[in-house]
Automatic annotation (TrEMBL):
PROSITE patterns: UBIH (PS01304). One of its GO terms (molecular function) is monooxygenase activity. PANTHER family: UBIQUINONE BIOSYNTHESIS MONOOXYGENASE COQ6, MITOCHONDRIAL. This is FAD-dependent monooxygenase. Gene3D superfamilies: D-Amino Acid Oxidase, subunit A, domain 2 (3.30.9.10), FAD/NAD(P)-binding domain (3.50.50.60). Residues 127-322 form the FAD-binding domain. Keywords: Monooxygenase, Oxidoreductase.
């Protein structure tokens, strides 16, 4: 192939969705990066909001997922610091109260990757390219360590939290009933149990446990029985007896933002442009929001304007500035607040959760932002 309209670097979920969306708009798309084979040990799950699900449905990917690969979340309960017992905190969100069918879907990352790869293979407008080919526009979707971003001279403001995430699949002896739960611990721990139907329908969870790196290393080194005991001590009896159903995985947590997400002939999307703390489960949603925004900008461009026009691409940058900045600041503020060791601060945090729980308009506004509306 001599040239393409858009060259997409990166074959993750963001890059694949962008390729499919632009191909559906009639553009010739070049996609770099080989297709990774499915991993049997992949324990990742994605929390996808309504906007992300709508995108995947439009791309004919959502309905191709196995029935047990996407589990609806009907309620979410956030538990404050349990050690501040004089003022226990609790905040809940309900799909019924918000007037929606579900708050989110918990999706098997490996299953989504398989379906995206199949859709890409069968698209006549997407061409696998081994190296750079001439293109009117280059879209960098290579993730947080994107080499192409560095080659463009883009600087990244990155800060390590000094924390890591520990992920696994769990089973429970009680039905999850579509309820996601999150606990904030006294040292900045954030334990999330995401209702899931693999490996056991109605009684499984995806685990994401964010904690200081030393504690994360300790958790990874524990035997399965010891890990389950530590997990149960944090979660308590509410979700029932929890057992590991997979190996554990871990990765460091950072907050990062590129100083520019567009320029003459190029754009950044997904983790190449912004990385946030996973406590709100919005990382991939932000990346797919980038896809939706860029596709809209390109579809609405003036006929005489080239795809790589710098002024055109600024429209994309402006459209994504507020959502990505707001989510990064919100998750960072929450992480900092709950990591504060002061007993007085911990009680204040719990009181704040209780107060917010009694403010339906503010809860509704937060829910709408999380849903992508």
């Amino acid at each position: 192939m001599q040239s393409v309209d858009v060259l997409i670097k990166g074959r993750g979920a963001v890059g694949s969705c962008l390729a499919l969306r632009l191909a559906a708009q009639g553009l010739r798309v070049g996609l770099t990066g080989g297709e990774a084979p499915p991993r049997a040990d992949d324990v990742r799950t994605y929390a996808l909001n309504a906007a992300s699900v709508a995108l995947l449905r439009d791309l004919k990917v959502w309905d191709a997922l196995p029935a047990d690969a996407a589990t609806p979340v009907f309620d979410m309960v956030i538990h404050g610091d349990g050690e501040a017992k004089r003022a226990p905190g609790r905040l809940s969100f309900s799909a019924w109260q918000q007037g929606v069918r579900e708050l989110a879907y918990i999706v098997d990352a490996g299953a989504l990757d398989v379906q995206l790869a199949a859709a890409v293979r069968f698209s006549p407008h997407i061409h696998q390219v081994e190296a750079n080919v001439p293109a009117d526009l280059v879209a960098v979707c290579e993730g947080r360590d994107a080499a192409s971003r560095e080659a463009l001279g883009v600087r990244v403001d990155a800060r390590s939290y000094g924390h890591s995430a520990v992920a696994a699949r769990l089973t429970a002896d009680r039905p999850h009933q579509g309820v996601a739960r999150q606990w904030f611990g006294p040292s900045g721990d954030v334990l999330a149990l995401l209702p899931f139907d693999r490996p056991q329908a109605g009684q499984s969870y995806g685990l994401v446990w964010s904690c200081p790196q030393e504690r994360a290393q300790h958790l990874m080194a524990l035997s399965p029985t010891e890990f389950e005991a530590a997990l149960q001590q944090t979660a308590g009896a509410t979700p029932g007896q929890l057992q590991l159903a997979s190996e554990r995985a871990s990765w460091p947590l950072t907050l990062a933002r590129a100083d520019a997400v567009s320029g003459a002939g190029w754009v950044l999307l997904g983790d190449a442009a912004h990385v946030v703390h996973p406590l709100a489960g919005q990382g991939l949603n932000l990346g797919l929001g980038d896809v939706i925004a860029l596709a809209a900008v390109l579809a609405e461009k003036e006929a005489w304007r080239p795809l790589g026009d710098e002024r055109l691409l600024r429209r994309y940058a402006r459209a994504r500035l507020a959502p990505t900045l707001a989510m990064g600041e919100l998750t960072d503020a929450l992480q900092r607040s709950f990591a504060h060791p002061s007993q007085a601060m911990r009680m204040l945090r719990n009181q704040g959760l209780n107060a917010l729980d009694h403010l339906p308009p503010l809860k509704r506004w937060l829910t709408q932002r999380a849903l992508g509306h």
